[in-house]
Design a protein that fits this description.
Chain lengths: 234, 465
């Protein structure tokens, strides 16, 4: 059953019989009906979007600036040992009792250093048990320097719920995962998942927030109150 | 002839524009937005070209709508999504209701969707006894206050924290201060269990991607992600015009939407959903239904001159700069979509003669057109609506008046005579000023008519030569 599909399509085709003027041309004295160029594509967006330099040091500067502005916590860790310290310190400070986590190269390694109850999500899980977790630990696909966004998918970050239900989302990443801008992030998605995209892809930019009361920003509206990105230098 | 909608609009906007508290609240809310918006807009290498690119992307989609809709639905269906095409509000509502009945749904959680407001879904579901909760904080507040959203993007921007505290106290029995943090936490705590226990999650869709068969949802709170992660059934409502050709197009549309709409570089969560839980995934809904809604969008599509109004990405930027919106307030419109774009499209969606008055409620300053991230020619379309309304149903006295005016202005002697007569009678105008006898009372009720000067420009010119 697909409802009024045929009727709607027929109405659309009928309506489109008369051509519309090309977009952005507000001069009614001579309206063009055929666009002078094909619709712009991904590669061309960079010439208009906020610029990002290709040098990785500048990208890191830009990224840290965004992280500060968005209230995303982060650490740039020189070695695996430092990464483990960083996370154990968080655990002590916040007194985690239970963590939600998925299997992955980085997460597996970290998990062995966390001596607390773990909810492994990979084979399915009880949402109520996840609700009891103090933190959700996940990997990611990429980090976008331009916007300070973390790109995750259901595949890379342990499904849909882990990165949004627990009050603290901790992302494990490597410096090699930093990409310059949004167009690069989409290029990466095409390349990595091509014909078989995970059912959920999300750009996470800072902890959950709302401005619905007098436009005053409050963190932790429904999703995580805290977002931490631990980035291992490689 | 004035429709009751027009009378209501006049009454309500008249009342609101004199409400100084309302004005102060709106001014404060939008002031902060403007600063952030300008700051983020200035980071673009070329904001104008970015707008042009976005408008070309939407033009391509809207002008080949049948093709892209078919591509999108084919891709979605291939991965287990059920697509339903609804001609009108009734069909869309019925589909959601039958689904709820069939699946024995009890409670429903919703994330923000203006399309649901458009088809009056909440009321229909509640009447049948379903527990429907809006999870977006602003939407939740106006739902508790039993009023429609005030603004496309900021549904509760007209309420002060004190008022919100009172609403929470009255409806939820909560006893907090009026700090936004505390109020937000009240909603957070109530909602968390709802995400986990609701049987159905209903969301909107900011974009539909043809190439990969996905919907894209933009939000800040994380409520849409929760709504689309835990309930067993996810239903998304989407207007047919929301489709875009490629996944990569989002790389420019998402930042434009965020900057124009919220003054942000990008919103907190931009989520693309391409079906129910897939094999090998650990969570996500078992079923994903997409309801595509026409509801007279094809009538707007048939108007080639105004077809670009379907490019709208509902960012709300045109509302935020509109002097009419800021003074009349979102509720005065009496429409689902407020502000300049609402005034353009409502006559198409709900009848020109009933809603033409909104197109006249404009100073034609053009601010809306200037800020629109997809370059819709909003203020010219207000003029097009005015023209179409009179062509369709001419107003006899206006015709006579304009005829008279054109004769008088084309004939200097007649014009001079008019001024002379005016000078004689104007001093007597105060006798009838603003009363029923006054032919220009719509103007003079609240304003003064400038006095005709003793010497006209012509006379002054002559005496100086
Ligand atoms: S008309 Fe343009 S500015 Fe107004 S809401 Fe739509 S996209 Fe935004």
């Amino acid at each position: 059953m697909n409802g009024s599909k045929d009727q709607i399509l027929a109405r659309i085709r009928e309506a489109l019989r008369s051509p519309a003027p090309v977009p952005g041309n507000h001069d009614y004295s001579h309206l063009e009906m055929t666009p002078s160029r094909p619709k712009p594509e991904l590669e061309s967006f960079r010439q208009w979007l906020p610029p990002v330099e290709s040098n990785s040091e500048n990208q890191w500067d830009l990224l840290t600036k965004s992280f500060h502005a968005l209230k995303t916590d982060f650490g740039l860790l020189e070695s695996k040992a430092r990464l483990i310290d960083f996370i154990q310190e968080l655990q002590r400070a916040e007194q985690w009792k239970r963590v939600g986590i998925h299997h992955g190269a980085m997460t597996d390694e970290i998990a062995s250093y966390l001596e607390i109850e773990k909810l492994w999500v990979d084979e399915g899980y009880d949402p109520q048990a996840m609700e009891q977790c103090d933190v959700g630990i996940s990997e990611c696909d990429a980090i976008v320097a331009q916007t300070g966004s973390i790109l995750i998918t259901a595949k890379s970050a342990g499904g849909r719920g882990l990165s949004v239900l627990p009050p603290h989302h901790l992302v494990l990443a490597r410096t090699s995962q930093i990409v310059a801008d949004l167009p690069s992030a989409y290029e990466l998605l095409y390349k990595r998942y091509g014909g078989n995209f995970p059912s959920m892809i999300s750009f996470i930019t800072g902890p959950s927030r709302t401005g619905d009361i007098e436009r005053i920003v409050v963190l932790g509206a429904h999703g995580p109150k805290k977002l931490t990105v631990a980035i291992l230098k490689d | 002839m004035n429709s009751t909608f027009s009378k209501d609009f006049k009454k309500n906007s008249g009342r609101m524009s004199q409400d100084l508290t309302h004005r102060a609240v709106i001014k404060k809310a939008l002031g902060a937005y403007e600063i952030k918006r300008d700051e983020n807009r200035s980071k673009y290498l070329n904001w104008q070209e970015a707008r042009q690119a976005a408008s070309e992307i939407k033009w391509e989609a809207v002008n080949h709508l049948d093709r892209y809709l078919l591509e999108m639905t084919k891709n979605l269906e291939a991965r287990g999504t059920k697509v339903f095409w609804a001609s009108n509000a009734e069909e869309a509502r019925q589909y959601v209701i039958s689904l709820a009945v069939e699946k024995k749904v009890k409670s429903i959680i919703k994330s923000k969707t203006m399309t649901s407001e458009e088809i009056h879904l909440n009321g229909a579901l509640e009447k049948l006894g379903y527990d429907v909760v809006e999870s977006d904080l602003g939407e939740y507040i106006v739902q508790l206050n039993e009023e429609p959203p005030y603004h496309l993007v900021f549904p509760a921007m007209h309420l002060t924290r004190g008022q919100i505290k009172e609403i929470f106290k009255r409806k939820l029995g909560s006893d907090t201060s009026d700090l936004p943090e505390e109020l937000t936490m009240v909603a957070r705590n109530i909602m968390r269990q709802k995400y986990l226990t609701a049987d159905m999650g209903i969301s909107g869709a900011n974009f539909g991607v043809a190439e990969t068969g996905m919907i894209s949802i933009t939000e800040n709170e994380g409520n849409a992600r929760l709504t689309t992660s835990f309930p067993k059934i996810h239903v998304a409502l989407m207007g047919i015009e929301k489709v875009i050709p490629k996944l990569g197009d989002l790389a420019i549309l998402l930042p434009l939407l965020a900057t124009a709409g919220g003054g942000q570089q990008i919103t907190c969560y931009n989520t693309m959903i391409g079906g129910p839980r897939q094999p090998g995934e650990c969570d996500g809904p078992e079923e994903f239904h997409l309801v595509l809604i026409d509801n007279r969008r094809t009538e707007l599509l048939a108007d080639a001159e105004q077809r670009d109004a379907l490019h709208c990405i509902r960012c709300g930027a045109c509302l935020n700069v509109c002097p009419i919106f800021k003074n009349s307030g979102g509720h005065s419109y009496g429409t689902t979509y407020q502000g300049p774009i609402g005034s353009v499209i409502t006559p198409h969606l709900r009848g020109l003669q009933d809603w033409k008055h909104l197109s006249s409620a404009s100073s034609l300053c053009g601010s809306c057109t200037e800020v629109c991230p997809v370059k819709i020619d909003i203020h010219h379309h207000l003029l097009h609506n005015r023209r179409n309304a009179v062509t369709q149903m001419p107003v006899w006295w206006e015709r006579i008046a304009f005829k008279g005016f054109s004769i008088a202005t084309a004939n200097p002697a007649l014009f001079q005579l008019g001024i002379k007569i005016g000078r004689v009678f104007q001093p007597l105008h105060f006798l009838i000023k603003g009363t029923l006898l006054d032919p220009v009372r719509a103007w003079t009720q609240t304003r003064d008519l400038p006095e005709i000067p003793a010497k006209s420009f012509r006379q002054q010119w002559k005496s100086r030569q």
